[in-house]
Design a protein that fits this description.
Chains A, B: InterPro entries: Aminotransferase_I/II_large, HTH_trans_reg/aminotransferase, PyrdxlP-dep_Trfase, PyrdxlP-dep_Trfase_major, Tscrpt_reg_HTH_GntR, WH-like_DNA-bd_sf, WH_DNA-bd_sf. Chain A is of the alpha/beta class. Chain A is built from 17 helices and 14 strands. In chain A, helix 1 crosses helix 3, helix 2 crosses helix 3 and helix 10 runs parallel beside helix 11.
Amino acid sequence: MTDGNGRPARRTDAAVEAILARIASRALAPGDRLPSVRRFAATLSVSPSTIVEAYGRLEAEGVIRARRGSGFYVTGSEPPPLALAEAGGARERDVDPFWVSRQSLDADPSALKPGCGWLPAEWMPNEAIRKGLRALGRADDAILSDYGGTRGSPALRRLLLARFADEGIAVTADQILLTGSGTQAIDLICRLMLRPGDCVVVDDPCYFNFRALLRAHQVRIVGVPFTPAGPDLAAFERLLATESPRLYVTNSALHNPTGATLTPQTAHRVVAAAAAHGTTIVEDDIFADFEPSLSPRLAILDGLDRVIRIGSFSKTLSASIRCGYIAARADWIERLIDLQIATQFTGPSPVAAELVAGILAGGFYRSHLADLRRRLAHARETAADRLASLGIKPWLMPKGGFYLWCRLPNGRESAALAQRAVKDGVILAPGNVFSVSQSAGAFLRFNVAQMADERVLTVLRDALKGG
Amino acid sequence: MTDGNGRPARRTDAAVEAILARIASRALAPGDRLPSVRRFAATLSVSPSTIVEAYGRLEAEGVIRARRGSGFYVTGSEPPPLALAEAGGARERDVDPFWVSRQSLDADPSALKPGCGWLPAEWMPNEAIRKGLRALGRADDAILSDYGGTRGSPALRRLLLARFADEGIAVTADQILLTGSGTQAIDLICRLMLRPGDCVVVDDPCYFNFRALLRAHQVRIVGVPFTPAGPDLAAFERLLATESPRLYVTNSALHNPTGATLTPQTAHRVVAAAAAHGTTIVEDDIFADFEPSLSPRLAILDGLDRVIRIGSFSKTLSASIRCGYIAARADWIERLIDLQIATQFTGPSPVAAELVAGILAGGFYRSHLADLRRRLAHARETAADRLASLGIKPWLMPKGGFYLWCRLPNGRESAALAQRAVKDGVILAPGNVFSVSQSAGAFLRFNVAQMADERVLTVLRDALKGG
């Protein structure tokens, strides 16, 4: 018996059997995606059309079903929820990109958090926030209870415009959108730009939550080796040429986790290469206010054409008052507004945006930043000295911010060290959560503002001794 | 010349030419997705393997590129951003699901908004919010400046647990996750459960932003006709059997836009049908606090097994203090936490959650709701009488809430009416923005709390006269 194309129907039968066997053995579970037609044809050494027929027959029998634009899935009564974690269980699971976030956010108050990504509460401008809250108690009813406009507080957007103008970017009001947080800003951009399977370039190492976020978008994440001057340019240009990535997501000012700063030459070549290959750059400026002076910035060189700038006030003002922003081409902002309405209805709380605008407007914020920078410079020196006493050495001394990216002595593995330290109430940030290539196992990221307690060093010393 | 399978290579050439012609004529633009192999094979009357070869050749030439799991796309230097709107331009564009949101959110202060989905600012408990803000001025530093835990304020989650217990659902603390808003709650669930091309059932009519949100998830949206007793059961059961939808998204308490309430029989059969077909239900309870007494609820019948409850305080407390919640199976909540970290870092601002918890904790909220219900009952009667004088009749008289879903006289079309009224500073909500099948053109949704100004009726009367 043959089909219309003269191919033995037996081959189709064999392909159908192969799938059924995989389902029976749970190699393919309900909700799992079947291999692509091409890949499975190669696996079975048959033509793609044989697989198309086999899938068609299984679909007709209700064993698998097609999802438009996304392939075939094994049917079954259980929905297949998206699992981002590499293992189950919040606390016991592997050291994946969520490990540091969950450990730090849900730490009990007695825990020490040299691995976390924020300043201690007592370093934050709490008196200014209290004053702002009292002032809000006298605000108009509309600020207190309405949704606010789709772009967010005009007062805060004007302050951002003025700041960008100082840096040399002429931005108009329709190029700024306020969002619920810096992370939400990047997420909205990913929703606009990415489809499952797209390629995105990040630095290796990069902020671990870029990895988690991109995984949620089901894209292919490729790392570019990061040097003290910025991304390795030869590797970056090669990746752009071979992988046609849609996005390059980076922090250029006080890079997370390394604390590095772009050189002007690197910045220039990154912008040029991205333009040549049609790659959009998302530049996360969240640590920019910690810089002693403005370092080269991709968004400034590019004038917000192919570079999108995002930022927030979580690191310098308050992480509790959630508010971020996107600065980009006006036509992209227009589409981002629709996406924000669809997925969040409105961006930041008007109360939050008003509070932030009130604090930024005065001279207070500038002097608060100057204080923070002074205090951090001192904490950085102290932390580096104390870590040196354990043989832990910074990869470079950053010009600002609160991170020190450090190499452990004697090829020690940081994930094991972190698993051990957490039992002693010290939360560390092991290198590989930042590394797409998993090549940073010998590193730890330290937050110098969270190392005042002697116990951090004691626990580290014990953990390093502990074999 | 033939290929290895004995098929003339000429057919592949012809398929390649056909694609190139479409690209040359801009029928396929850079960033557009190519037809599926199967569909294009049918279009050209060739075998699928011919198309697989043609696409492979075009890919090798860099004309198109595969995105893993999502088909082939035309390459080009411009990225293909996701466009949710049916037409460009915020104000002038068609009456799509974003029309009401954007008109209402960005309305100038003199505009009247009988089409919007919230109470006037002066109906909201502003004094309680002011008091709450002053109290926050005395809160711990950690509340004011830290991110807070991954699940959100324990105080607010405890209050929700107590409320659910009163309604007869035994929920544990690990079954509740706080989110930045009700919309974000549904969005997170969609991210967990849906993949592009999946089928989702909504009521027809339904809240317009469900349509916008689901469009952002690139799923297939199917409407079930809505009756005064809830979804049409025969149609619902048929849809579940034929379409295998992953989700059914609905508001059962004071349905938006109709104001209808589920009957116990409908509620029971909806839950049973969803369980039988493996469809998860998302029950948006955002208007529940406006009910005079608890109506049948899917989450209660089901005990939060396959039904996920979401809600927020935007309608009764403040839309500016953004805070929503998800109540669901603990294993789903665990995955939703990862998704929330990845895409937003944390959920609601601790300041916002603390403020909401403070207001809910006292006896004030209960008496505020009683006041609102009394005031709304009066406004509902008045609005219905005044609309009747124009021949505009409610589809049913709701038991609570602020909506009246009304039919226009003489088969008048509400989109044209809304386009006209907006020029006179009155923002209406035309029926088809709520309708997947576009069968509600004769309806308008009125917000009875936003109709005190005589000008609403004057503009409506003029618009109805105006041909």
